[in-house]
Amino acid sequence: MRCVPCYDAHMDKSLVRKSAATQYGFTLAELTVVIVSVTLLAMVAASCTVSPSPVDSARAAKCRNNIRNIAEACRMYMNSPMMHRNSAIGAALPKVTPAPSSTNWGSAAKGNPSALWLLVRYKLIGRSSFVCPSAEASGYSRTPRPGDSAFTDNTLSYSYLSQVRFTDANTSAEIEITGPVNKGLRPSELAVIADANPRCRPGRQGLDNDQIGANSLNHDRVGQNVGFVDGRADWFSTTTIPDTKPLNNRSEPDDIYRSCGRGNDDADGRRGAINDAFLIP
Fold it and tell me: Among residues 245, 106, 257, 91, which one has the least CA distance to residue 271?
């Protein structure tokens, strides 16, 4: 008598499950490799984004407050008759005599930064406002000490509106700021202070044309805070400030780290027009 193998349904299902698991399942080692790979990819993607980390965002916010305070101090200086007793124009942004020249505008003690020191000298703002928290954390800047009588190359994190005179010897920095609208000036739109110009290097005269269009190093090139003559301060992710109040319906965006209309011929620190915001060093 021939024996017929008996059919065991339970055994059959078990074999099917084992076969399917062998064919489609993942081992623990394979799962570990996948998880590690996904984690690494996520970390790389996060490092490539343009958004600052929470710590950087906090520093950027504090920096913007510094920029706003400096812009407001400039405004107070402009509106104080005591600051302009010997001026034929009246209101004017901080400036020194003699004015910075095309050969010394980068000097912290005698160049463009020396005009900002007037705000400290006349107690319109504290010394600590001139140091970007991000730059300070990176070791690039420190707060001016009480005994300092001027900025040094590592005690100023911000760039100021160029006070170098135009080629026209009859045009002064005061007239540039307070000129009539029909000359193309829109005072509320004029940027006067911002995070340090990346084209400038501390203690060095001149501008790096390879850095045209680059954001400030203060915030790892993510963007920069910019202060305006009316006391406003805003964050911009590019160096070009949009023209929100076009004159004669002509929009003229302005690169704050470059002299307009002069191409790369701006190493002398001169602004290109009355309403040109060229911030150095």
Answer: 257
CA distances from 223 to 56, 68, 234, 245 (A): 11, 16, 11, 22
Terminal CA-to-CA distance of the chain, rounded, Å?
106
Q: Which two tokens stand for residue 172?
A: 């002064």
Q: Which of 31-35, 48-52, 213-217 has the highest mean pLDDT?
A: 213-217
270: burial class by Cβ within 10 Å (0-12, 13-18, 19+)?
buried
CB-based burial of residue 194 (10 Å sphere; 0-12 exposed, 13-18 middle, 19+ buried)? buried
The whole-model pTM stands at 0.73
User: Percentage helix, strand, coil, to 5, in the chain?
Assistant: 35, 10, 55
Residue pair 268/167 in contact (Cβ under 8 Å)? The answer is no
Sheet of 158-161, strands arranged across = 233-236, 224-228, 191-195, 158-161, 279-280
Please state the rounded mean pLDDT for residues 30-55: 63
